Structures
1.
Amino acid sequence: MNIRGKTTLKAVLTAYDDHLHRTCGLCAGTRRGYRECVRRFLEATLPGPRIALGDLDAKTVLAYIEKRARHLKPRSVKLYATSLRSFFRFLRTRGMATEALEHAVPSIPEWRLSTLPRGLSEEDLKRFLASLDTSTPRRERDRAMILCLARLGLRAGEVADLELADIDWRAGTLRIRRRKSRREAILPLPPDVGRAITDYLRGSRAKTRTTSRRVFVRLRQGVGEPIGSLLVTQAVAYALRDAGMDAPSHGAHLLRHTLATRMVNRGTPLKEIADVLGHTSLATTAIYAKVDVTSLSEVPLPWPETAS
């Protein structure tokens, strides 16, 4: 696709996404995040129906990142910085930019192990899951999705990508084909998750008469069409709101963090936790094994005795 000279934003993003997929081998979720950051950048810096990428300069790039940094958390700003560096490298391969644009993107300090991932306590998790009901088709579907997140630690995209063929009912297993690590995984299917999925498949999903092979489909707009990861995240947020819970966060990752923390507290080896979560590095899993100094300080210790 030719994106030299003046072109449309859609053409640029399509070419960039193709580069991320074919050349970089990134998964759909990561590409979506990069593409969204680049889209917002281009809309802010090159407004109009047709844009000229050659008009971008280092000063514009730096000013944009500095503006985002005033309103976003460091982790979000870091995503913008990473996305734009990737985009500028892509432009350089097309002969449309120099290394100056890449170097104009500042490094964003965001220490990965500086804070502990926050999840729900055992009591709050039980209360949250007990609050889930099946009174409407959407709630029936959302309950099945939320149990997949809570019991298996899946990412939102992994739940959205599940297909009917991924469930082996005889063996009681669930196949995850598109992990972030690009490795396939076979996980045991907990009984309560299996029952929730079965109820949904025989109930609200069957009524859509969809031909999609995806497990979870839309039940309102675009009935029967596959869902995306955003809808999975929204399902968690809506359920937390309905339960009246004040959670550390309101997305799908909250339940992933909760499962990992519970496994650590039960003494599960890090390698086993990494296999469940789909981590390629134990360093990533080790985040959950850090000592929470705040919680530790609340544990009463016996006063040391001294010999008289």
2.
Amino acid sequence: MSAGRRLALALGVLGLALLVVAALALFVGSAGLSPRAVARALAGQAGAESVESVVTLQLRLPRVAAATLAGGALAVAGVAFQGLTRNPLAEPAVLGVSSGAAFGVVLAQIFGLGLSALQALGVAVFAFAGALLAAGAVYLI
């Protein structure tokens, strides 16, 4: 089997595993919902104010989507660092980028940025700037 086919097979299996785990995550939680209730909520057949609709569509589904996107973003960041440095052990924490982002957040809080939506965007900008500054310094060194 060629390397391209093995890669395609591995990506297909991992993608299928992601879908299965994401689907199973919709059934796990403190509110015991039956698979039929979750399916009704996903199909839009449950009332908008029903427990299964609120729990499935407003709590569990956004959390599953956010977890999937965050995991994918972390994977891409790790691969980018490993490709940039040509070091399989490189990661944001080892290179100090995580600490640079944390320093940016602390600076934003010192300047009075808080929890409103616009201020949270400012905190994210400070975190990104701190991470970029730390990455640049490490790369230059």
3.
Amino acid sequence: MAACFFYLTHHPDALARAAAEIRSVFDAPDQISMGPKMHQCVFLRACIEESMRLSPSAAGSLWREVTDTGAEVDGEFLPPGVDVGTCIYSIHHNPVYYPQPFTFCPERWIAKEAQLIQSDVDLARSAFNPFSIGPRSCIGKGLAYVELHLVLSHVLWAFDLQLAPGELGHVGEGQEDGPIGRQRVNEFQIFDHLTAAKMGPFLEFKPRI
């Protein structure tokens, strides 16, 4: 949720489009709920998934131990007992699946936009795993999606928002003179502590007139 607010406020056009979508689908805040109307909010869902792609809440490796028979991964034999993992952050920034991987582009999740074809979206989805995959994937995935949709919808319906003025508005950004991997100003910075630690964003909220 923090990442989504960060990227939306750093990309005002996307923020305006997401807010307009919510306000056009739901006539009043008490109508906001999961169901057919929420399914119409295609751009909101795309913003959620693009934010989780760029700054996943569990960005590190989810280690697995090789079984007694050993395993072969990408042509490399791994002996029993070896721990194997690939950072979710790394997978989500692989240009094979995500062209311009460090760019916030919700349209990459919508086949009819940005001159995409369905196979492009399918390829992106095949590598998308912010909750991991398989029998050990996060049991709270469904609840997380519900929370994200409902909270973001209520906030975008009721408020106009923007980054806080001054230095507070830059909290959570990378720095051009920062350490390697943290020089991208418009990337929400996360720190691996099993799940992702983060700072910010700090925002201003103004009730709709």
